[in-house]
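Hi everyone, sorry if this is the wrong subforum. Our group has a chain we'd like a structural model of before ordering constructs, and none of us has done structure prediction before. Sequence below.
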Amino acid sequence: MEVVVSPAAHAVIAAARELVRNRRWYLGLPADRELPDALQAALDRAVRALDAAEADRGRG
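Answer:
Right subforum, don't worry. Here is the predicted structure as tokens:
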């Protein structure tokens, strides 16, 4: 089953990834550490889940 994501959703996902990446850089946090703010950490977990799902689809 192929999942179709709209261009707008792709833009939101890309922006979320960039936000998380920039926040990690600003705080000097490695990828294995959770962001200190609860909302930022939730966004980070959501982006990681999307990345994992994409990787699974790529392998399948």
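For your construct planning: The chain has a mean pLDDT of 88. The radius of gyration is 13 Å.
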